[in-house]
Amino acid sequence: MADIAERYDIPKQHFWLHGPRSRRPVEYDADAGMWNVYGYPELQEILGDPATFSSDTMRLVPKDLIPGGDEFSMAGFITQIDPPEHGKLRKLVSHAFTRKVVADLEPRIAALTHELLDAAHDRGKLELVTDLAYPLPVIVIAELLGVPGGDRALFKQWADALFQRDTKISLAKPAEQQNVDLQATLKPWKEMSAYLAGHAAERRRQPRADLLTKLVEAEVDGERLPDDQVVNFAIILLLAGHITTTMLLGNTVLCLDAFPEQQDKVRADRASIPAVIEESLRLFTPFAALGRATTRDVELGGVTIPADHMVMCWLGAANRDPRQFPDPDVFDPGRDPNPHLAFGRGIHFCLGAPLARLEGRVALDILLDRVNPLRTDPDDPVKFMPTPTMTGVRRLPLT
Ligand code: HEM
């Protein structure tokens, strides 16, 4: 893997954090005041036990480290909610993500992929992220939600402001000793909330056949979702719906560049595309880490994690745990089964996984038809996301 890191100039932090072989499966980071978990079986244990490893991590973060402090509402933020409330909210949105709703999107995804590649073709150069991997999932999720795909420059601005910075928060130090620019996060967050609140209010007045209308009309225990919950849920869908899928598409093409023999194989056997996508998710896990908060003292991997501690669950490391995946640094779509944790596991398993997999499959199939070979441009370097929690290319020029 070191040769790949060097070849594509991948920032070191992605690798030293994700290489579990040199580390213990569970370690305390005194500087950050958090526990890191790198091992596959240990993560299985965590993700299967939401009573001990709660998703409500914000309660451990001091108010003066939260952008907006008290005015910041986490209501409706499904990834932060524990049972039993989590199950109610999840049921509500699962209706919008049925297999049929997702499968029906296939022709639209294919048409969009062709449109975007045509535009790049006319310009004579293909930068995979800007030309396809970013706009495709963002247009799809925007159309599903019912907000204009044409506003995607705005979404990108917000997403970049939230995720392109490598901000490290420590729970072991007082806020004033930390270099955290809360305003930089608060501003895009407020703008995004106002934008989605405007669209939600419009749907209450005038329902349409879109997901935002479903959310404003949805009821939990006979009550409609309050505005802040609708807005926060829509934010999660808008953000989760594209950033990770952008990384998936870019990373998959990078893997096929790094392992050209696998590119030949998948060209010859398109039925293996889903396996290529799964292996890309394992090797370059887009959403590399999740947070959990312990509710009691718990023994894990031979150590005791005390109650009320933050636990960083490094999915990207567990997906390379040699106890689970032999030759973990090799891109081998032939792994069967491939029980990677890229979409999480348990009650919070990614709601959008079928959509992400469909977008990956359709886009890769068309790319293989239209671009032969898929090869990075040796004169124009690949760029990687700076944050260790996000494993993904953000610039991928092709020849
Ligand atoms: C949850 C990854 C695409 C919506 C998650 C989780 C992971 C994940 C790891 C678990 C979070 C946790 O346990 O705390 C990914 C990856 C994607 C992807 C790697 C693409 C390659 C999508 C898409 C959507 C989406 C396309 C929506 C359209 C969600 C939602 C949750 C979630 C709503 C929360 C589920 C819950 O808390 O019950 N995702 N995701 N994701 N994802 Fe995705």
Automatic annotation (TrEMBL):
Signal peptide: none annotated. Keywords: Heme, Iron, Metal-binding, Monooxygenase, Oxidoreductase. InterPro entries: Cyt_P450, Cyt_P450_B, Cyt_P450_CS, Cyt_P450_sf. CDD domains: P450_EryK-like. Belongs to the cytochrome P450 family. This is Cytochrome P450. It comes from the Bacteria. GO terms for molecular function: cholest-4-en-3-one 26-monooxygenase activity; heme binding; iron ion binding; steroid hydroxylase activity. GO terms for biological process: cholesterol catabolic process.
